[in-house]
Design a protein that fits this description.
Layout lengths: L4 E5 L3 H13 L3 E5 L2 H9 L5 E5 L7 H11 L5 E5 L4 H9 L4 E4 L4 H13 L23 H13 L6 E4 L6 H10 L8 E5 L8 H6 L16 H4 L4 E5 L6 H13 L1 E2 L8 E2 L3 E6 L3 H6 L5 H7 L2 E4 L10 H14 L6 E2 L1 H9 L5 H15 L4 E2 L1 H8 L7 H6 L7 H14 L10 H20 L4 H8 L3 H11 L11
Parallel strand pairs: 1-2, 1-3, 3-4, 4-5, 6-11, 6-12, 7-8, 8-11, 13-14
Antiparallel strand pairs: 9-10
Helix pairs in contact: 2-3, 4-6, 13-15, 14-16, 19-20, 20-21
Length: 484
């Protein structure tokens, strides 16, 4: 049997040598060039069974060459490599018809596995999509952690597979869902988001599926639900772990049968939406507690995608800072420059609020500090609560220890400023109370070393009520040895 021929195009001599050695050892015939013109001559002449090419070539960009390759030989798989490593690089590679995308530096074992898979699969022509504006990237970062996110998204763009996004609060789950929609096959349809934690539990089914006139008290007119609003597009179910069990049952039925009925309605309605779900909770733990349906979990978790916390991708902080500074400038705020030590201070901070916390910090700095250059001292002042007299303290006109009321007021001010001219989604009262409950109960359990009887006494709660809240909120019960 004749071995497959791999066509390699890369301007870097060291990479050409490495690829030649690795592919030859794997038993492939290898033809190598440093320019796009030679690569195109080979492809046009019918040579090669697979192409491996860098994006940036001395005579032509691979993205300009790819459409010609796919038109001349649609069955020829093309593996694109790039040192630029941005979200748009991965997406553009997918849109131009690349079989796969690998960021540099790449893993040779992975590359060989991709080559083997590409050669063994039936050859299909990838659909060509329109070019998109490259002005603003929806996702920012070039870290290894983000590269895997980009690659998964690029592979999902032309599918309708259900995606489950997990990750801590503030990691950008809705941004990922929007990027998947905006650059995917449903881009011309609506993107509809619903936050399960922000809707009263008795109204979730009506919000999702709509209701008929007279279906319940107050239903004076027929109302369309989010499924109907998202028809032909993407429905983003945020905080899916907060969905009550009865609504979970109805959602499972929709996913299984592809149809639903409105609240109070009898006629089934066919639905054509892509489902993207997200949560910051451990759904498997909720399943064990009987709070989430296991069969629904597997229906939603077709493609799992976990977003890394910012502390695990600190090398992305400089890019993120530049991105948020540019956004602030477009909103009319002053342009700031961050010195190297300020960047290092941010890179060493654990960021419990993740990217959202970083964005809020940049907005505060650009709005409240008159300095053109942000220094490490300023960053330390804002990120370390033990340093007094930050500009926020002066603006609020307070001195001394911050009370709980003052802290909540400051947090709400920052929270509302993040929406600009818009307002936050409904249900803020219950949402804020729920967010206060978790740290309150955790702090008391920590202080009582996990003694729930003492914790219930301190909180003024019945012990059974405390146990129920610990289970519902997912509080990790603190225990430690007593120190003398």
């Amino acid at each position: 049997m004749t071995s497959a021929t791999v066509l390699v195009a890369d301007d870097d001599a060291a990479i050409r040598t490495v690829l030649n050695q690795a592919l030859s050892r794997a038993g492939y015939d290898v033809r190598i060039t440093s320019n796009a013109a030679t690569l195109w001559r080979w492809v046009a002449g019918g040579e090669g069974d697979i192409v491996i090419t860098d994006v940036i070539m001395p005579d032509e960009n691979a993205f300009d060459l790819l459409p010609r390759i796919k038109k001349a030989r649609p069955e020829l798989p093309v593996l694109v490599m790039s040192a630029q490593n941005t979200f748009m690089t991965a997406i553009k590679a997918s849109e131009k018809g690349a079989y796969d995308y690998l960021p540099k530096p790449f893993d040779l074992t992975e590359l060989l596995a991709i080559v083997k898979r590409a050669l063994s699969e039936p050859k299909q022509k990838a659909p060509e999509l329109e070019d998109d504006q490259q002005d603003g990237m929806p996702l920012v970062g070039r870290s290894a952690a983000m590269q895997e996110i980009y690659r998964v998204l690029a592979r999902l763009m032309q599918t309708d597979l259900t995606l489950m996004i997990t990750g801590e609060s503030g990691t950008g789950k809705e941004l990922v869902a929007r990027a998947l929609h905006d650059y995917g096959k449903r881009r011309n349809g609506p993107f509809v988001a619903i936050n399960m934690a922000a809707i009263p539990r008795d109204l979730i089914e009506s919000e999702l599926f709509g209701h008929e006139k007279g279906a319940f008290t107050g239903a004076q007119n027929r109302s369309t639900g989010r499924f109907e609003q998202a028809e032909g597009g993407t429905l983003f179910l945020d905080e899916i772990g907060d969905m009550p069990m009865d609504a979970q049952t109805r959602l499972l039925r929709v996913l299984q049968q592809g149809e639903y009925t409105t609240v109070g309605g009898r006629t089934p309605i066919r639905t054509d939406v892509r489902i993207v779900a997200a949560t910051n909770k451990d759904l498997k733990n909720l399943i064990n507690q009987g709070l989430f349906r296991e069969d629904l979990y597997y229906r939603l978790n077709v493609v799992p995608l976990r977003l890394p916390p910012l502390r695990d991708r600190s090398e992305d902080i400089p890019d993120l800072v530049r991105h948020f500074v540019t956004r602030a400038e477009k909103e009319g705020l002053d342009v700031k420059r961050f010195d190297a030590e300020a960047i290092e201070a941010m890179k060493s901070y654990p960021w419990p609020g993740n990217v959202r916390e970083l964005e809020n910090l940049i907005r505060r700095l650009t709005a409240l500090y008159p300095q053109d250059v942000i220094t490490r001292e300023i960053i330390d002042t804002e990120l370390r609560p033990d340093i007094p007299d930050s500009p926020l303290d002066k603006v609020a006109g307070r001195s001394g220890p911050v009370t709980i009321s003052q802290a909540v007021e400051e947090n709400m001010r920052t929270y509302f400023s993040g929406f600009g001219e818009d307002l936050p989604p409904p249900g803020l009262y219950n949402r804020v109370l729920a967010e206060l409950e978790y740290p309150l109960i955790l702090a008391v359990l920590t202080a009582t070393r996990g003694n729930q009887i003492k914790a219930a006494e301190v909180l003024g709660l019945n012990r059974n009520t405390l146990r129920k809240k610990i289970r519902e909120l997912g509080v990790s019960v603190y225990r430690s040895a007593r120190t003398n």
